[in-house]
TrEMBL record:
Highest classification ranks of the organism: Eukaryota, Fungi, Dikarya, Ascomycota, Pezizomycotina
The keyword Cell division is assigned to this record: no
InterPro entries assigned to the protein according to its UniProt record, in alphabetical order: UstYa-like
Membrane-spanning parts: 44-68
Family according to the record: Belongs to the ustYa family.
GO aspect biological process, one term: mycotoxin biosynthetic process
Alphabetical keyword list: Membrane, Transmembrane, Transmembrane helix
One Pfam family hit: UstYa
Pathway(s) of this molecule: Mycotoxin biosynthesis
Source organism, top-level taxon: Eukaryota
Protein's recorded name: Uncharacterized protein
Keyword flag Transmembrane: yes
Length: 281
């Protein structure tokens, strides 16, 4: 009981008709439980307390906001990506992998090499169809109409155009094999634009995977599975090791999942037979 701890009022100071508790110094009324809440005198006190609460609350909100703003600044900048129907349809996936030198794609022209390129392009290098009214909504440029698919326009994905261009450049190195009837000028006309396509693609994607320099003759793996230096490596000076090394690009890298993109493209593919068949070049 709070009254146990109140000063005992002197009888002569005791106002008539007032009980002892209203005489208590203001701060004392706020002990729990709040029994005296609605007495007249306490109105001011409650107003003060409400203002105090508001002040503290505002200060706390201010600090929370400031710390959130600082945290937001530390987060990496995430640009809003440009529109792609592949992303909109949830077919943009990433996975961690490693570049792996491929024997077939490092070989000089042969029927086998041609087949590897041709099979991939024939399977994947198609146009996709996209509703014309939606293209306008999402800001895609106007394209030729698929006249046998009313209401649809013809579009393609950059990756397929770039693969086409890479193959085109490859073939232009061997014009007598791939373009026997064409002049040098005709062959290079298309190829030159492909250099620029790939130049800008490489720079745009700014691959930051890490390459390094080594020579396979410098190390071997022993029977216990330990990586060991060869005698040759130990014999060479640091300068000799450097000049005998080659750039290695079997880097760890995060890639977009081409299988998912290919599946999306297949699901939205234009039926080439309606338009005179696919042109793989
Ligand atoms: C590794 O050593 C062999 C034998 O000396 C040599 O023929 C070969 O060219 C070397 N390989 C490389 C990548 O330097």
């Amino acid at each position: 009981m709070s009254s146990y701890y109140m000063p005992i009022p002197l009888a002569e100071n005791d106002d008539e008709g007032m009980n002892h508790e209203t005489k208590v110094p203001s701060g004392w009324s706020y002990r729990f439980p709040f029994i005296h809440v609605f007495t007249k005198k306490n109105h001011i006190l409650w107003l003060n307390m409400w203002l105090l609460f508001n002040t503290i609350f505002s200060v706390v909100i201010l600090f929370v906001a400031l710390s959130l703003m600082r945290r937001a600044k530390e987060l990496p900048y995430r640009p809003v990506p440009v529109y792609s129907p592949v992303r909109e349809d949830g077919a943009e996936h990433y996975f961690d992998t490693q570049y792996q030198p491929s024997k077939i794609f490092q070989s000089p022209p042969s029927d086998q090499v041609d087949k590897a390129w041709h099979d991939w392009l024939q399977e994947h290098d198609h146009m996709f169809k996209f509703p014309k009214h939606k293209a306008k909504q999402v800001g895609l440029p106007e394209t030729i109409e698929l006249y046998n698919d009313p209401g649809y326009g013809a579009y393609g994905l950059g990756v397929y155009h770039q693969m086409h261009c890479l193959n085109r450049i490859r073939k232009s190195f061997y014009p007598e094999r791939y373009y026997p009837g064409e002049s040098q000028h005709e062959v290079m006309h298309h190829t030159n634009h492909c250099f620029d396509v790939l130049r800008q693609t490489v720079l745009c994607h700014g691959d930051i995977s890490v390459v390094y320099w080594w020579n396979q003759n410098y190390t071997f793996v022993d029977q216990l599975g330990n990586r060991r230096y060869t005698e040759e490596y130990l014999r060479l000076s640091p300068e000799q090791r450097a000049t005998g090394s080659f750039v290695k690009w079997d880097s760890k890298v995060q890639c977009r999942d081409m299988d998912a993109i290919n599946a999306w493209a297949k699901a939205n593919q234009v039926d080439d037979d309606k338009y005179g068949g696919q042109l793989v070049d």
